[in-house]
Structures are given as structure tokens and as C-alpha cells.
Amino acid sequence: MVSNMVEITTTMLAEWTARASATGTHETDVEPYIVRNAADIIAMASFGVDDSKGKAAFDKFKALQVALFSPNRLAGVPFGEYVQARRTAVCRRLGEEIDGLLLSVIESRQRKSKGEGEGEERIDLLGLLMRSGKGLTARELVDECKTFFFAGHETTALAITWTMFLLALHPDWQRQLREEVAEATGGGDIDAVAVTKLTKMTWVMNEVLRLYPSAPNLLRQAREDIWVGDKTVIPHGTNIWIDAVGMHHDRALWGVDVDEFRPERFKDSPYGGCTHRMGYVPFGYGGRVCVGKNLSVLEYKVVVSLILKRFSLSLSPNYEHSPAVMLTMRPSRGMPLILETL
Ligand code: HEM
Fold it and tell me: Where, in this chain's numbering, is heme bound (predicted)?
């Protein structure tokens, strides 16, 4: 996968290089590029999708997300669909179109895995997954695909986008990471072995996800009445949104430097010195912890390494700080950065 990630990202960086002026610097709103890049990577990594149907499904996901979460958030709120009937109709239509596109991607994969073996013996994995009995139905498989598409690209992309922002603000960390990458790769290309040597980059990723968790809420449902102290009860069946941003910025858990960018707090502790073991939850916790964590760490390191090898980053005067929760935590007015070719 690493070589595919490198290939996809190199194409994006070539676009940035082409935009550079004669002086080698240019301003770019990097967020849409990084999101598109991550979309291409998850499409390749999860589904081997490189066809137009996969891309069309992505574009509709984007539209669905905007329809669901702006300007206010009623998704998951009881009776919310009746308050916003027009929006609900748009979301339903988009949902059906996405289902149709994914189903046809699945069917064409299935045809390929059954048929086009050119002599070699191939295992019909999709057929195995979908066979009756305990297998998944086509409907369930479509739902699994949607979870992966949705969960698997924007989260990682935003971690990278906020990293570029924080490295632009902290040139010393930018320099330290660039040096680490040079040492790990010996000046050559990033590969699966070099990635494992990027210790400081792990601290930086952890600290970025502490300050700007790309998945700002965890969802749970109370399976029984839960008592908080002896006066408050969360009744059985209550849907709960757990506020990761609040916990990651809680002075009582992190100390007085809670709002500062200090990756070294993760040097000796995977929890960054947080005083409660559930106070740091960028990938969730327990039985439903993120299944894509390792993939996202790998992608993050490959993409950030490639960017730092080619560009120096600083903040554009046009940047407006406006993180907003639209299911994920995004820079709602974009991420314009000055990129200087190295
Ligand atoms: C920086 C990147 C990512 C972040 C911050 C992130 C964060 C999260 C969080 C907070 C959860 C909820 C966990 C819980 O409720 O305890 C989650 C679940 C999930 N994530 Fe990620 N994720 C990332 C990348 C990915 C990737 C790359 C994939 C797919 C390849 C992925 C697939 C999933 C899936 C399928 C679930 C649901 C797991 C379940 O309910 O059993 N995520 N993620």
C-alpha cells in the first residue's frame, strides 16, 4: 500500500509544484487537495476502486455531508427529519444514489473476482462474504462500504491538514520532522521501513489529534440506567455524544499548558500525560475503537513525509481560524498556506 500512497500523493504534490511561481512560493488552500488525496487512497486501499463510479460516490458523499450538517445539526436528533423535510428529502435521494453506485461497484468487483482470472485460480471473496447463512447481504455490504468511505478518508485528511497548520505555526517542529524524515529515508524515498522510524512524527500526530480531533464525538447508547454521582441518572436507551474536544482541552486532565502545541508530552506516554486513562480518545475506546487506526497512521506518515521533503510551510495572512464540527472537525474557512518549494 505504501507505494500506492506515494504514487497518489506525488501526483498531488506535482500539482502544487506546477502552481509555484518563479520564486518557488505560492498560496494554496490545501484542505480540498488533502481530502481528495485521502479519498483516492482509501478508494485504492479498501476497494481497489479507480473507476468513475467510485469517484461519483465520493462526490455524492460530500454533498450528503454538507446537506446533513450545515448550517445546523439535526442528524440523529429525534424527529429532526420532520423539522427539516426538504433537507431530509435531499439526503434520502443522495443516500439512494450512493447505494446504487456502491452496489454497482460491488457487482463489478464480484464479476471481476469470479471471471477475469486469465487462467490463474482466483478466490471469489465477495461471493464468500455474501453467501447466504451467516454471510452479508448486498444491503449490509453497501452499508459497510459506506462506513469505510465515510470513516476512512476525511478523518485522516483532516489530521494531515491540521498538522500542516500547526507545523506552519511551529517552524521548529517542522524542521525537526524534516530532519527525522531525512534520517529515516537516508535521503531516498519513503517506504514501509522508513515509516517505522518516525518517532517524533508519532508525537506530532498524537498532539494534533489532541488539539483538533478529526472525530470530535464518540457515540454510545446507555444499555441500562447509568448513575453519575447519586443525583443524576442517564436513562436506559439514551443516545450519548461524548465530547472528545472538551476532554482533550480539559485543564484538570492535562494541566496548565493544555492549549499549547507540545508534541513532546507524548514522548514518554501514549496518553500524553493525561491524568485519566479515558481522557485521550482520538480513535475512540474499547470494543468499538477505530478499526482504521493503523492504516491512518501509515497514510499520515507517508503523506506528511512527502510534503515536508518538497515544501516549507507558513501560514497565509488570508487564514481565518474557524474550526467547525461537521461530523468531523474542519477548518470551515479553508486552510490557505504559503508553500515554498525546497
Ligand atoms: C486520523 C484518522 C482517524 C480518526 C481520528 C478516526 C477516529 C475514529 C473514532 C473516534 C471512531 C469511534 C470509536 C469509538 O466509538 O470508540 C472510529 C471508528 C471507526 N473508524 Fe476511524 N478514524 C480514523 C481513520 C479511519 C480509517 C482510515 C478507517 C478505515 C480504513 C476508519 C474506519 C473506522 C470504522 C469502520 C469505525 C467504526 C468501528 C466500529 O464501530 O466498530 N477510521 N474512528
Answer: 290
